[in-house]
Write a structure and sequence with these properties.
The complex is a heterodimer of chains A (320) and B (248).
Chain A: E1 2-7, E2 9-10, E3 13-14, H1 16-32, E4 36-41, E5 57-61, H2 71-84, E6 87-93, H3 96-109, E7 112-117, E8 123-124, E9 127-133, E10 138-144, E11 149-153, E12 168-172, E13 182-189, E14 201-205, H4 216-225, E15 228-231, H5 233-237, E16 258-262, H6 268-274, E17 279-284, E18 297-300, H7 303-319
Parallel strand pairs in A: 1-4, 1-6, 4-5, 5-12, 6-11, 7-11, 14-15, 14-16, 16-17, 17-18
Antiparallel strand pairs in A: 2-3, 8-9, 9-10
Helix pairs in contact in A: 2-3, 4-7
Chain B: E1 2-6, E2 9-11, E3 19-20, E4 25-26, E5 33-35, H1 37-53, E6 56-63, H2 68-77, E7 81-86, H3 92-106, E8 110-114, H4 125-133, E9 137-147, E10 150-157, E11 160-167, E12 170-174, H5 189-197, E13 200-203, E14 212-218, E15 227-228, H6 235-244
Classes of the chains: A alpha/beta (320), B alpha/beta (248).
Bound molecules: flavin-adenine dinucleotide (2 copies).
One flavin-adenine dinucleotide (FAD) is lined by residues 206-208, 232-235, 248-251, 263-265, 267, 269-270, 273, 283-286, 289, 302-304 of chain A.
């Protein structure tokens, strides 16, 4: 018996969300009295760094079949390693890739799949974990009815736990058997930016900014903080900002350490996508804005004055 | 072309969520149920396939008789017929097994579901259906064109989009982008009248195991009230974020 963590890459590099999954897998393995292994596909990074998060050994799968993401091929390789090491628990991160992989993997290895996991297991036999549901408006404890389990971690919900270990890496070859063909025609990626669901700090703005021309100050604040930018739905609907920045019930769900909402009223559908954030700061000129009820810190004031002042203060703080 | 659209019956997006029976059940009292918003985007895209490419649209739900108004609404929007698998949807594996069994029987070219249900947020039923059928699966689908036995699909990936060509039959899990909000249809009187007489077949579930059990529900801890910072003393906010919240 063992634990297997599926480690994702981003342009060949190991993803931050994967360190979180690795840490989770290692903690789970130690509770089960066993070891945690990892599998990574098409990585250019040295996977031995996963040792720091408690991974004993990483199976690194390379080769032409895995150069492009193909959910069925990836699932085959993961299932192959899972079988080899007799994994009873598999851990991955609930990213876009994770969601393409997890349900297929569950069917392939006949496992229970529990997604949106937000805590370490309450119990290990039977496996019982807390997951987020009802679009951030509730939690459900799920008890597994299966011998084999896949846990998909809500990105950023738990963070990493580091130790000092050094992990082994074993390169393996796998030739997938699937005859499902996926012909990738085009990939359109924003270069050099942290993908929004992975960002630790997010600066977000809404209709209160009045015009797309006013986003300069938002980007400056984000840059000072090393943050990603997001927006409310009307802002992306009006094409002030790209759809990929739209957070909320119908957009992306994020759980950063810090979410700064500027000129956003805090409608229930917006909160559904952001209320998992650890700390929420709201900047709004209307003291009655509903968002203040969901905020940790609030500034009642005009964004056009408050935001540049905050950027200045952050820069000063960072310079210290 | 035959298209199967999976419809999840979920609480309205503005619902206040409560639990009952010692927090072991979701409290349905006072809740208005709707077509899962992600499914409505997929349904609307399917209706376009019906109007422009002559597709036949079947909607399916796994649920008890209380979900029928939701299926009737999908019929009023324009689906040709409906199937209700008469069972409490006890977990994603069970639900996917039911849909996969129907899909096998019906010989659909395309199965459209939503990216996730807004109640249990599982993001797993469509992918499981695809794997059970052994056909391509595309999640977070924001673009779909069908041409003969192939589909060109666009899906969201971290920080961007990926366009690919897959062969049919296939399963996609959709969201906004398949169509825009302004394309969504409010059923008109004629649609509502027609929906009453469109076929809604009630089918007994196939034998299937379940793999997870919801044992307890919990509401998020209520936030302590907001700490207000004077806009003229914004350094104080930086200090709080650093020293108290420890997030910068
Ligand atoms: C089914 C459904 C799904 C939805 N999904 C989403 C979703 O995923 N994401 C989402 O965001 N919304 C969603 N919505 C829309 C949501 O209900 C709100 O309409 C939307 O979030 C409002 O956006 P906003 O806060 O930017 O704009 P507004 O509500 O117009 O708020 C603007 C705010 O800016 C403040 N303001 C104005 N001037 C200034 C200034 N100078 N300085 C500081 N503050 C200022 C105002 O006081 C106000 O609070 C959905 C709605 C429905 C029905
Ligand atoms: C009374 C009750 C008890 C429950 N108890 C449990 C439990 O013990 N354990 C557990 O895991 N879950 C339980 N559930 C949740 C239920 O099983 C979910 O409907 C199921 O898990 C699918 O939800 P999801 O969030 O995983 O769907 P997702 O995978 O997020 O849904 C994605 C898409 O799949 C399709 N889809 C989802 N559900 C249906 C459906 N019912 N019919 C047709 N299409 C659908 C839709 O297109 C949807 O957009 C219970 C639900 C009810 C009503």
């Amino acid at each position: 018996m063992s634990v297997l963590v599926y480690v994702e890459t981003w342009e060949g590099k190991l993803k931050k969300a994967s360190y979180e999954a690795a840490s989770y897998g290692a903690r789970l393995a130690s509770r089960l009295g066993t070891d945690a292994y990892a599998i990574v596909l098409n990585a250019s990074d040295d996977a031995s760094v996963l040792g720091k998060y408690g991974i004993k050994k990483t199976f690194s799968v390379k080769g032409e079949h895995f150069q492009h993401f193909h959910n069925y091929k990836y699932v085959e390789a993961i299932a192959h390693v899972a079988e080899q090491i007799q994994a009873k628990a598999l851990v991955l991160s609930g990213t876009f890739t994770g969601k393409m992989v997890a349900p297929l993997l569950a069917v392939k290895i006949n496992a229970a799949l529990i997604t949106n996991v937000v805590s370490d297991p309450q119990e290990v036999t039977p496996l019982t974990v807390k997951r987020s549901a009802f679009s951030n408006k509730g939690f459900v404890y799920y008890e597994s009815q299966s011998e084999v389990n896949i846990l998909s971690i809500l990105p950023n919900a738990l963070g990493v736990s580091e130790s000092t270990g050094q992990g082994e890496v074993e390169e393996i070859v796998h030739t997938p058997e699937t005859n499902i063909e996926i012909q990738i025609v085009e990939i359109d990626k924003v270069k050099g930016k942290v993908p929004l669901p992975e960002a630790e700090i997010v600066v977000s703005a809404g209709r209160g900014l009045k015009s797309p021309d006013n986003w300069g100050m938002i980007e400056e604040l984000a840059e000072a903080l090393g943050a990603s930018t997001a927006c409310s739905k009307p802002v992306s609907d009006m094409h002030w900002r790209p759809h990929s920045e739209h957070v909320g019930q119908t957009g992306i769900t994020i759980n950063p350490q810090l979410y700064i909402a500027i000129g956003i009223s805090g409608a229930i559908q917006h909160l559904a996508g952001v209320s998992g954030s650890k700390t929420i700061v709201v900047i709004n000129s209307d003291p009655e804005a509903p968002f203040f009820k969901a905020a940790d810190y609030g500034v009642v004031g005009d964004a056009f004055k408050v935001v540049p002042a905050l950027t200045e203060a952050i820069r000063k703080f960072k310079a210290q | 072309m035959k298209v199967l659209v999976c419809i999840s019956h979920v609480p309205d997006t503005t619902s206040k969520i409560n639990f009952t029976n010692n927090n072991t059940e979701f409290d349905k009292s006072g809740i208005t149920f709707i077509i899962n918003p992600y499914d409505e985007f997929g349904l609307t895209r399917a209706i376009w396939l019906q109007e422009k490419q002559g597709a036949h649209i079947t909607v399916i739900n796994v649920g008890t008789s209380e979900t029928e108004p939701t299926l009737r609404k999908a019929l009023a929007i324009g689906a040709n017929d409906a199937i209700r698998i008469d069972a409490e949807p006890t977990d994603a594996w069970f639900v996917a097994s039911q849909i996969a069994a129907q899909a096998k029987e019906g010989g659909y070219d395309l199965i459209i579901g939503g990216r996730e249900s807004i109640d249990y947020n599982g993001s797993q039923v469509p992918g499981m259906v695809a794997a059970m059928l052994g056909v391509p699966f595309v999640n977070a689908c924001v673009g779909l064109e069908v041409d003969g036995g192939k589909a060109t699909v666009i899906r969201e990936i971290d920080g961007g989009k990926e366009k690919s060509i897959i062969s049919l039959p296939a399963v996609i899990a959709g969201q906004k982008g398949l169509v825009e909000e302004s394309d969504l249809r409010i059923p008109n009187m004629r649609g509502i009248m027609q929906a009453r007489t469109k076929p809604l077949k009630v089918v007994a579930p196939v034998e299937s195991e379940r793999k997870t059990k919801a044992v307890l529900f919990e509401k998020p801890a209520s936030k302590a009230s907001v700490k207000l910072v004077d806009p003229d003393n914004i350094e104080e906010l930086v200090r709080l974020l650093h020293e108290e919240a420890k997030v910068i």
